[in-house]
Amino acid sequence: MLKKATQQKTTLMNNQNYRGEWFLVDADSQILGRLAVRIAMVLMGKHKPQYTAHVDTGDFVVVTNAEKIKLTGKKAQVKEYDYYTYYMGGRKVIPFEKMFAEKPEKVLTEAVRRMLPKSKMGRHMLSKLKVYRGGEHPHAAQMPRPLEIN
Questions:
Q1: Which of 21, 83, 97, 102 has the most Cβ atoms closer than 10 angstroms to its Cβ?
Q2: Contact criterion met (CB below 8 Å) for 110 and 69
Q3: Residue 92 three-state SS
Q4: How far apart are CA 12 and CA 51, in angstroms?
Q5: Longest CA span, the chain
Q6: pLDDT digits (tens, 9 = 90+) for 17-42
């Protein structure tokens, strides 16, 4: 006679029983793409065993020293950011070097945004990313833990 296996319930997360943690990332001499992938995974919550696709189980990420991010190869000379203003001839192209000199925070934010889901939940996940140019940040009260990026 066969024994019945003991059944365990799978617990699914919901918004009421989840509270995110805070992580601190130092972007000094980190490669842009590799850093963005790791941050996107933490924002989505895929680094946790209780990840649920339809619930935002991600954590908050504070990034400092955004102006010290590196790119490999010739990407710094070739990469461009473009957008369209919806007017005739309204395509705007900004080279990476100019964007990085003016707004290094936006460079990292855009890289992470493009790796998140293109939905309302993806926009909510992106709001949990805080990027700062220097080594100072105003989130010391949340006691962010350091996040190791390999």
A1: 21
A2: no
A3: strand
A4: 8
A5: 77
A6: 778 899 999 999 999 999 999 999 99
| φ/ψ bin of 45: left (φ > 0), alpha (ψ from -120 to 50), beta (otherwise) | left
> What is the domain partition of the chain in residue ranges?
21-70+104-146
Name the β-bridge partners of 81: 94
Instruction: Kindly report, residue by residue over 38-96, the tens digit of the pLDDT.
Output: 999 999 999 988 888 888 999 999 999 999 999 999 999 999 999 999 999 999 999 99
| Whole-number CA gyration radius for the chain | 19
Q: What is the pTM of this model?
A: 0.88
Averaged pLDDT score across all residues of the chain: 92
* 119 DSSP 8-state letter: S
Around Cβ 56, how many Cβ atoms within 10 Å?
A: 17
Residue with tokens 């509270």: 19
29: left (phi over 0), alpha (psi -120 to 50) or beta: left
